[in-house]
């Protein structure tokens, strides 16, 4: 392979695929014999100012403004790449796929990275279908999502690649700021806050017996959460993630059991594992593969199971700390870049027929 693989990812502010397709992935693939370089699909500054604004239609404004300009720039600078890998998030959801077709017109393989089950989202389904139909390779983060793609497109070239987490950035810290109460943490994309709000009643019942506070790490605007227990909010900042996660009694990962959730990559859970925080999660999709219930976290389905799991961790901090140590070890051994990039490089070379 004489020329590098070009990887285009969303701006870091969108909290989507930064670890998955970021600098550590590029370095890891290069070390593993698959030379790579990368860039953000569009402006980080505009992502922070526009995407997280309260303007109506802000996503469309972003897609047909900064994101479109970003693609035009990359079209002019991708000449030396041997293949182009694009993370679907934050690129315009057009169905003509003009940028992707420009890649193919230059006789380069086009890799479509499908982070979630776009087929279950009405305004994203047609864009996903159009890209799967022309992609040289479709990369997905879970086996259920691979099966979902193949159900719809039986002949599609689909590759499952386990997503990494940056275990050097997200790690347990030895020195923690004092906290008046033990705390649970919920960290994730703004769009996933609805999952957390559904569990407010459960958290209120736990708080009645075991006082705690909830820490939310998400987006750039304070969320609207009505709850009787104390809670605090911090904007997402990858440089502060370790500081804000460390010391939590548990990381919350509730999910509704539906086709979309069963295909998700579980990056939230990987974040908790890497920080040494035991996740308490719904047994949905990839969660069941990552969490060994009672060992590195707890899987809970019913309201009673959630209350029991959270109460158990609050009442036995020694057991919670030991569970967190196992969680951290699992993250390093199974989901770090050092563990996954050699597998990625070998799989991609085979799938694309590269030397």
Plain-language structure description:
There is one protein chain. The protein has 355 residues and is of the alpha/beta class. It folds into two domains: 5-164 and 337-352, Rossmann fold, CATH 3.40.50; 183-335, Glycogen Phosphorylase B (Rossmann fold), CATH 3.40.50. It has 16 helices and twelve strands. It has a six-stranded parallel β-sheet, sandwiched between helices. The model has no long low-confidence stretch (mean pLDDT 89).
Short description:
With 355 residues, the protein is of the alpha/beta class. It has 16 helices and 12 strands.
CATH superfamily of the largest domain, please?
Glycogen Phosphorylase B
CATH fold-level assignment of the largest domain: Rossmann fold
Number of strands: 12
How many structural domains are formed by the residues?
2
Tell me the Rg in angstroms.
20 Å
- Kindly name the structural category: alpha/beta
How many DSSP H or I helices? Answer: 16
Write down the CATH class of the largest domain: Alpha Beta
- Compressed to H and E, one letter per element, the order equals EHHEHHEHEHEHEEHHEEHEHHEHEHHH
Q: Mean pLDDT score, rounded?
A: 89
**CATH architecture type of the largest domain:** 3-Layer(aba) Sandwich
Q: What share of residues is helical?
A: 40-55%
Strand order of the largest sheet: 2-1-3-4-5-6
Shape: globular
- Stretches with pLDDT under 50, minimum 5 residues: none
Largest sheet: 6 strands, parallel
The fraction of residues assigned to DSSP E strands is 5-15%
How widely separated are the two ends? 5 Å
């Amino acid at each position: 392979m004489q020329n590098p693989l070009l990887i285009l990812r969303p701006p870091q502010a969108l909290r989507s695929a930064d670890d998955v397709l970021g600098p550590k992935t590029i370095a890891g693939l290069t070390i593993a014999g698959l030379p790579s370089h990368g860039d953000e699909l569009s402006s980080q500054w505009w992502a922070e100012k526009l995407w997280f604004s309260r303007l109506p239609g802000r996503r469309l404004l972003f897609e047909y403004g900064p994101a479109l300009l970003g693609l035009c720039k990359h079209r002019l600078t991708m000449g030396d790449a041997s293949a182009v890998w694009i993370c679907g998030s934050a690129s315009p959801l057009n169905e003509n796929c003009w940028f992707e077709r420009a890649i193919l017109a230059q006789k380069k393989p086009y890799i479509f990275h499908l982070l979630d089950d776009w087929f279950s989202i009405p305004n994203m389904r047609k864009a996903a279908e159009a890209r799967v139909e022309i992609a040289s390779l479709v990369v997905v983060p879970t086996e259920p999502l691979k099966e979902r793609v193949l159900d719809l497109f039986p002949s599609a070239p689909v590759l499952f690649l386990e997503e990494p987490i940056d275990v050097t950035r997200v790690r347990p810290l030895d020195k923690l700021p004092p906290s008046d109460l033990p705390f649970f943490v919920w960290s994730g994309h703004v769009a996933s806050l609805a999952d957390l709000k559904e569990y407010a009643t459960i958290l209120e019942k736990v708080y009645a017996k075991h006082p705690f506070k909830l820490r939310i790490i998400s987006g750039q605007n304070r969320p609207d959460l009505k709850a009787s227990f104390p809670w605090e909010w911090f904007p997402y900042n990858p440089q502060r993630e370790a500081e804000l996660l460390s010391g939590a009694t548990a990381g919350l990962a509730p999910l509704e059991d539906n086709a979309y959730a069963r295909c998700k990559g579980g990056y939230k859970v990987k974040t908790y594992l890497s920080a040494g925080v035991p996740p308490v999660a719904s047994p949905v999709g990839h969660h069941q593969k990552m969490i060994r219930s009672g060992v590195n976290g707890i899987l809970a389905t019913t309201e009673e199971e959630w209350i029991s799991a959270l109460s158990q961790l609050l009442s036995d901090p020694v057991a919670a700390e030991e569970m967190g140590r196992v969680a951290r070890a699992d993250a390093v051994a199974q989901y770090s870049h050092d563990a996954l990039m050699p597998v990625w490089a070998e799989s991609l070379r085979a799938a694309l027929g590269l030397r």
